[in-house]
Amino acid sequence: MAKRVTEVFDRGEVTDAMVGEAAQFFSDNYGIWAQQFPDGSHHGKPGSRVKLSASRLRAQCLPEGSRSSYARVTVDGVLAGHAFACRWQYGDRHVFWVTQLVVHREYRERRLATTLLLALQQGQDDVFGIMSSHPAACKALAKAFGNFAFPQVSLDFARDHAANVLLGSPISYIKDAKLRGSLFCPNDTTGIISGVDSDFFVDHAEPLEALEWLKDEEQWPLGDLPDGYEFLFLFEVSRRRRPRSLSSSRSLGRGEKSQTS
Ligand SMILES: CC(C)(COP(=O)(O)OP(=O)(O)OC[C@H]1O[C@@H](n2cnc3c(N)ncnc32)[C@H](O)[C@@H]1OP(=O)(O)O)[C@@H](O)C(=O)NCCC(=O)NCCS
């Protein structure tokens, strides 16, 4: 049976070599640029892989002074997935934000994304968020931390607090994100319910396929995905009402490994 090893590192423990490996992993596995961009937008070559340098990855996911962490999972020694998360305070609430979640193309739909997020959990978080074009990333977050059956998630917290939660982020692209969707603007005609206009024209073929399937199964609460947009999935889980599995399970310590076969 395949041997899975999951490791978690605080920001200060993430070496340049680890960031370099993560940047390469992202560039090999994240996705490709869309075939068409609106006039005036600046992106990579249409159809080519979206690439990320180590320095940009560090700046976006592990910025100086932030409470951020990195988790990676190997399967039989092969790097099969990674996740970056950042924490900040919103009033008396603790925000856990997924800044990057990527699973190797050959290892998807084996719960590795869910496993990575669970490895990053710490007991004190109450608000969970992600901006992603991929419905499976939102689903993994719901699975790991929500105490609801997807898609029966209340979007009330997102509607009332998203703007201020984002404003408190130490990560500039999150802080500056432009909220979009009927949840925030009743006149919105794009079809998205909760999203951001990230001006990120990545190819949506794979997320749209997942979206179609989830919509057919009536499992999708966040609406459509216009080009250049990402879903914003944000919810609160009261610490008192947290699932037993979450409040009792212990997260991995600094640099600690968990192994399963
Ligand atoms: C999004 C991504 C990280 C998901 O990784 P994964 O390891 O396949 O996810 P999991 O196996 O943990 O699945 C999480 C949930 O999504 C569902 N799911 C996963 N892929 C799916 C797909 N293609 N279509 C429909 N549902 C899907 C799973 O069934 C699971 O739901 P369940 O627990 O109710 O069964 C992976 O597809 C990926 O790396 N995509 C490219 C990068 C990207 O878009 N990342 C998100 C941006 S931050």
List keywords for this structure.
261 residues, alpha+beta, binds coenzyme A, Aminopeptidase, nine-stranded mixed sheet, 29% helix
Task: Give the structure's gist in a few sentences.
With 261 residues, the chain is an alpha+beta fold.
Helix content: 25-40%
Task: Give the biggest sheet.
Answer: 9 strands, mixed
- What is the gyration radius calculated from CA atoms? 18 Å
Given this structure, which CATH class is correct? Alpha Beta
Return the CATH architecture: 3-Layer(aba) Sandwich
Provide the low-confidence segments as ranges: 246-250
What global shape is seen? globular
Identify the bound ligands.
Answer: coenzyme A
Spatial gap, N to C terminus: 6 Å
The helix-strand sequence is EHHEEEHEHHHEEHEHE
Count of domain modules = 1
What do we call the CATH homologous superfamily? Gcn5-related N-acetyltransferase (GNAT)
The total of helices stands at: 8
In the CATH hierarchy, the third-tier topology is known as Aminopeptidase
How does the helix and strand content classify structurally?
Answer: alpha+beta
Number of strands: 9
Measured by DSSP, the beta-strand proportion falls in 15-25%
List the helices and strands and how they pair.
Elements: E1 4-10, H1 16-29, H2 54-61, E2 67-75, E3 78-90, E4 93-103, H3 112-120, E5 127-132, H4 135-145, H5 156-167, H6 172-175, E6 178-180, E7 195-197, H7 205-216, E8 229-236, H8 244-248, E9 257-260
Parallel strand pairs: 4-5
Antiparallel strand pairs: 1-2, 1-9, 2-3, 3-4, 5-8, 6-7, 7-8
